[in-house]
Fold Monothiol bacilliredoxin BrxC family protein.
Amino acid sequence: MKDLNQVIEGSRLKPAMVFKHRASSPESIEKKIELENGWNISSDMIDVYLVDDMKSKDVSREISEIAGINHEFPQIVLFADGVTMYDESHDMISVKKIKLALKIVNRTFKWMETRA
């Protein structure tokens, strides 16, 4: 849980995405492979974390609770500035959508910085 708080606090400096999956689920394994094969987002842009729902059920459920979303898997949650900015589950998860969400988050924060 301490690590989860560090992830969320760290998202104030750089967006962080958590991918929740269950290693015993064929759908979850397939989505993980799909993301790994299509992933081309620089680690300079986003920190990525993997949570196995079977090994860390409490952390997986806490992520959903903090994010204010239903607990599902596979599921991604994008945190930025310490809050949930985007989430997606099951077949709706894609690298393309993550890139779009990340682009919106980055533009929003750049706009906010210029307004300060």
Notes: The chain has a mean pLDDT of 93.
